[in-house]
């Protein structure tokens, strides 16, 4: 901490003067004189911790502190030299003089650093309370606890060190440091604009992936990366296709030669044919990988194109990783400016190649939320920042919908993404942040919330959830927990299927009871304690799984209720339908005892409360 470093320097300075004075007094006494050693003290301006116009930072006090440090930096080195000279003239050791001079050098370094940070704070003054607090964090960021060396990495990254940028992304993926996004936000805003432009130009993929940077900066970097990759991939794909066609022509020629008996083993035709066949297979595999990247690029472009339509704001590309299953995040509306912000997390089977449909879900949430509150700034994000399990891998014991492995890997990345949205936010301090988890995405959301108790989101919404890795809604550390489930959605009932293998499959939460499914207890169960909202029955048979994807259907009650929750319009939720009135039994049957309901029958949904917990 800066205050501790300052106190240490002040104490060392006083000790240096005190030690020098005692040595001089001792020498005077040796020469027969009398000497009195005075007491030494230093003073410095301090900052009060009471709230000030700058989110707890008193800029005037900071100015005084910088002035004091600057004066010390100018005067102490000269004082140290004079003290050393006096001690040497008396044939006394002079370490005290060096200590005084060193204190002056330290003071000048701190004054220079704090002046730079004050410039940043003043420049951020109109950006809103959250960014003011983030800028204030940057004021003393260099003196905050930093066990993993983030300060060194950001300093190196600012000068263009690609290795340092990659190391920051690795720390981000681990998700262990909840302050990382705030540090990155402060670091970026303190960079010279020219340095920012250089980093975007040289390392757009790395810059675009850093949580905490302004959304417009990430969009600029990721779009540049997208364009670069599209050009490079299409060029390489064309080259390899031509090469593959030429190799294929040579292979056919050699096969004809061998069949015709025109050459024998001595000519090396067989060896050459095997070499070309191997080369052809490698080239074909490389072509398939490049074709996948082109399909992923097309899906991202299709998702981005949804922005600017139907009154929507332009889309922002907040994340982009091409190749393999791929990762991305697309926002409709600027999350840094939003009053109501929602991040949608998709589930099993989601890939970047098919992400256009998920982007459309975020778009229609924006449409409906804006319709209900046109005077509010809304940002709706589709986030695929984890590798979702695929249906084809259901028999695997590693990454499958039947266990939490993929969710455990994805939760730290979702927690870090949420950290970044908070760190970069510049709108009113009462903005509402919601995370909406669908299907297996609800499991990722539940685990991520538990990694940031009290700081993950203002509310979470689960739809079609097979389990969220928690026994009670209160375990999530979120003020408001909402659950919506279509009556004919079979995935939503996975958490109520008892499995004796739960302890084996669910290592993340071994405390879950045996009555829970592989991903946790059913969050729609009354004992879970979540607030529930109405989702209509689509009329489709459960075995078709159509209801599992119906939560965003246009004009559906489900979509309307999700939008109202995003806006905080809890009293306007469409309620559950009232039970149909039952006819009175005939007199002859009135004395017959009612038969118990078959075991396993679904319990009726409780009516939603008009306001969530904590509201």
From TrEMBL:
Residues 326-495 form the DUF1023 domain. Coiled coil: none annotated. Residues 595-615 have a biased composition (Pro residues). Residues 577-615 are annotated as: Disordered. This is Pimeloyl-ACP methyl ester carboxylesterase. The lineage of its organism: Bacteria, Bacillati, Actinomycetota, Actinomycetes, Streptosporangiales.
């Amino acid at each position: 901490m800066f205050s501790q470093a300052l106190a240490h320097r002040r104490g060392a300075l006083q000790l240096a003067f005190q030690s020098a004075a005692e040595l001089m007094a001792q020498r005077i006494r040796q020469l027969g004189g009398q000497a009195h050693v005075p007491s030494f003290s230093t003073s410095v301006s301090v900052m009060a911790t009471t709230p000030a116009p700058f989110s707890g930072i008193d800029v005037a006090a900071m100015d005084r502190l910088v002035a004091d440090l600057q004066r010390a930096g100018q005067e102490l080195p000269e004082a140290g030299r004079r003290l050393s000279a006096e001690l040497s003239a008396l044939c006394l050791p002079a370490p005290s003089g060096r200590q005084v001079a060193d204190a002056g050098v330290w003071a000048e370094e701190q004054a220079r650093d704090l002046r730079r940070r004050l410039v940043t704070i003043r420049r951020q003054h109109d950006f809103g309370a959250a960014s003011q607090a983030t800028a204030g964090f940057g004021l003393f960021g260099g003196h905050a606890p930093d066990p993993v060396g983030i300060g060194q990495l950001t300093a190196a990254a600012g000068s263009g060190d690609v290795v340092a940028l990659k190391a920051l992304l690795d720390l981000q993926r681990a998700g262990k440091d909840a302050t990382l996004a705030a540090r990155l936000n402060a670091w970026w805003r303190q960079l010279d604009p020219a340095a920012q432009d250089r980093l975007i130009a040289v390392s757009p993929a790395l810059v675009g992936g850093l949580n905490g940077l302004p959304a417009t900066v990430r969009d600029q970097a990721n779009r540049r990366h997208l364009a670069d990759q599209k050009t490079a991939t299409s060029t390489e794909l064309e080259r390899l296709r031509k090469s593959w066609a030429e190799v294929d022509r040579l292979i056919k020629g050699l096969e004809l030669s061998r069949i015709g008996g025109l050459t024998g083993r001595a000519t090396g035709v067989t060896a050459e044919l095997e070499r070309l066949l191997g080369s052809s297979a490698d080239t074909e595999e490389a072509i398939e990988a490049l074709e996948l990247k082109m399909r992923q690029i097309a899906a991202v472009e299709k998702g981005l194109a949804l922005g600017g339509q139907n009154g929507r704001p332009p889309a922002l590309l907040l994340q982009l990783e091409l190749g393999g299953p791929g990762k991305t995040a697309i926002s409709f509306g600027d999350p840094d400016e939003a009053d109501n912000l929602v991040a949608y997390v998709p589930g099993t089977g989601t890939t970047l190649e098919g992400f256009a449909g998920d982007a459309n879900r975020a778009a229609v949430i924006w449409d409906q939320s804006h319709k209900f509150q046109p005077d509010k700034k809304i940002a709706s994000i589709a986030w695929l920042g984890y590798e979702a399990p695929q249906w084809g891998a259901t028999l695997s014991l590693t990454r499958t919908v039947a266990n939490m492995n993929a969710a455990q890997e994805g939760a730290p990345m979702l927690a870090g993404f949420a950290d970044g949205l908070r760190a970069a936010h510049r709108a009113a301090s009462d903005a509402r942040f919601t995370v909406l988890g669908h299907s297996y995405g609800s499991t990722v959301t539940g685990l991520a919330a538990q990694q940031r108790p009290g700081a993950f989101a203002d509310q979470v919404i689960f739809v079609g959830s097979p389990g969220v890795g928690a026994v009670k809604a209160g375990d999530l550390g979120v003020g408001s927990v909402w659950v919506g489930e279509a009556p004919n959605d079979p995935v939503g009932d996975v958490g109520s299927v008892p499995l004796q293998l739960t302890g084996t499959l669910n290592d993340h939460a071994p405390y879950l009871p045996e009555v829970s499914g592989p991903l946790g207890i059913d969050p729609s169960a009354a004992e879970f304690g979540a607030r529930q909202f109405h989702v209509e029955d689509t009329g489709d048979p459960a075995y078709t799984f159509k209801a599992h994807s119906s939560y965003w259907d246009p004009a559906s009650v489900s979509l309307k209720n999700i939008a109202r929750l995003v806006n905080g319009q809890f009293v306007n939720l469409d309620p559950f339908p009232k039970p149909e009135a039952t006819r009175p039994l005939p007199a002859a049957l009135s004395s017959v005892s009612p038969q118990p309901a078959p075991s396993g029958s679904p319990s009726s949904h409780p009516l939603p409360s008009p306001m969530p917990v904590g509201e």
